[in-house]
Amino acid sequence: MKIQLIFPRHDPESYISRDYGYLVLPTGLEVLASVLERDNIDVNIEILNNYFTSEKEIMGRIDGDIVGVTDWETNHRTAMRLLKAAKDRGAITAVGGPNASNLGPRILNNHNYVDYVFFGSGEYAFSKLVAGREITEIENLWYRKNNKNYFNFYREVDLNSLPLFNFEHVIDFDRKKYKKEVSKRGGGEQVGVSFIRGCVKAVSGGRCSFCSLPLSGLKLMDPQKAWEQISCLHKLYGLDYFQETGDAFNVGNYPEKIFQARPRGLKIKFRGNCTIPIKPNEISTLKKIGFVELLSGLNHVDEKILLSAKINPRKISEIEKTVELLKKNNIIIKLSAMFGLPGETKDSVIALAKYIVKLRIKYDCLIHVNWAQPTVGSDLFNTLNANKKVARTYHDLTGGDLNNDDSINYPELIKLMVKYYCHISYEDISTIVEDITSYKPKIQF
Q: For the purposes of burial, counting CB atoms within 10 Å of the CB of 11, is it exposed (0-12), middle (13-18) or buried (19 or more)?
């Protein structure tokens, strides 16, 4: 039996360019492959990476008995095209990933060429599917039977039970060419690794209103195993820059445990997400582990808006102290700010804009400016979908159906969220955002 796993590039019409800088290595698909091999399932596995192989070439190579595709919001249409091509050639088709997780019934209803959709962690579920297990015994799986959609049950994956992976199944992957291309792009490429799944804030205080995370718990990989995985990839391919993909790396004393287990003489750099504030001793630990860049959500400065969005407010002084300490330790911090959350006013927009300018000027801080996005699966989306006026206007503008579509026009939905749930127009927010993202903003702090 031949298994083909495909990682698509961003859709041509996506807000992220298909030529976006990072060379993505499909670590998640390689984990699926390693589980299949560990379970002694007799299959031939190919991983086709759209970052190394063109979509046209991939289309020409599709000949698997089972074809699985990774689905992100930004590559959803491309994922569906690839699955249709696979079904046209007689394959069993499956899709998983962060976007597909919340779209199971929608995808099955709208695309009859998709047979299975995985919700959340799919490593063991996919292995059972390939092995031919009884369909009702497979966790985290949406499927179609007698023209009805069914979901069996949810089960989390123990990260410590997963085997180590490498990139032996990726077609057209050549480590020398990869390193040469990385060097041409400035040497800033990171390989994704997952030591943490879930969000500590979601577990302890519930999800933020814009969060569509499908996981309900928090799983941590044993530090010894985490370093074994890093050492494996470093030894085989000379890879030395990794992105830990969890929602926040600074969970309790986990960073200290990672540091204590760090092999001597291994020179590795890390990038990852964190929650602020971060204490001085924690920053010291992160530096000793090898972190050179951290990403965190500034989100907003208005406490009422933050509380309404179920985000824990932070003191401005704590944010600035963390930024200053990270800068002193030569760790880059990239913050993300969010405009357009329900309750937004002209005063709140200007307050956030001024603070962004202040951080940029005072600390030379990198800040990504985003719109709050009501992604399917989030409380924000559910609120908008339940509003008949919003749903009707969305249909009139786009021809779409918020109840059933698997490809949502988020730019239009964001505009409607601002229109019906904010006290300032989308156009006025856009004007302020355009100003603060310019080289010399008019707004001063």
A: buried
Contact by Cβ (8 Å): 214, 239: no
Would you identify the CATH topology of the domain 2-159? Rossmann fold (3.40.50)
pLDDT digits (tens, 9 = 90+) for 46-66: 999 987 888 999 999 999 999
Q: Residue ranges of the domains in the chain?
A: 2-159, 190-436
CA distance 343 to 425: 12
Return d(Cα 121, Cα 128) in angstroms, integer.
13
- pTM of the predicted model, to two decimals? 0.92
- Please give the structure tokens belonging to residue 141: 């799986």
Domain 190-436 in this protein, CATH class: alpha beta
**For residue 36, what are the contacts with CB-CB under 8 A and spacing of at least 6?**
3, 43, 45, 126, 127, 130
DSSP category for residue 170: B
Establish whether domains 2-159 and 190-436 are of one fold: no
**Alpha-carbon distance 87 to 271, whole Å?**
38
